Amino acid sequence: MSMDAGAVPAVEARDVPPPSLHLESGTVRFWVDVGGGRYVGASISKQALHYRFNAQASGDDAVDVYRAHGAEIDAAVRRRIDAGSREPVLLREGDLVVASQGAAPVQARKGAARPE
Length: 116
Fold this sequence. Notes:
Elements: E1 20-22, E2 27-35, E3 38-45, H1 46-53, H2 60-68, H3 70-82, E4 89-91, H4 93-100
Parallel strand pairs: 3-4
Antiparallel strand pairs: 1-2, 2-3
Helix pairs in contact: 3-4
């Protein structure tokens, strides 16, 4: 069975590390089950967590915010993968805000105004 050049090999559930804060980038890094035994690496910035969930999201609090809202955040990663994004998926504020308002998510453009 040949793999697509951009395909990421399946990661076993037991090998998936827990969500963690990456200090250098200021992001929470995590893995999302996208089906078929495949997990995709993803991250979300502390700022995006703050804007979407109105949380402090500092230090370990950012990981707690991710855990509290993991279902919504993981669903945003799956939508990005379904739309053609490749691993690793970096979620932006717009991936969560627009989807939470019931509209289809849009890709945030550089310089675009933030949704209110």
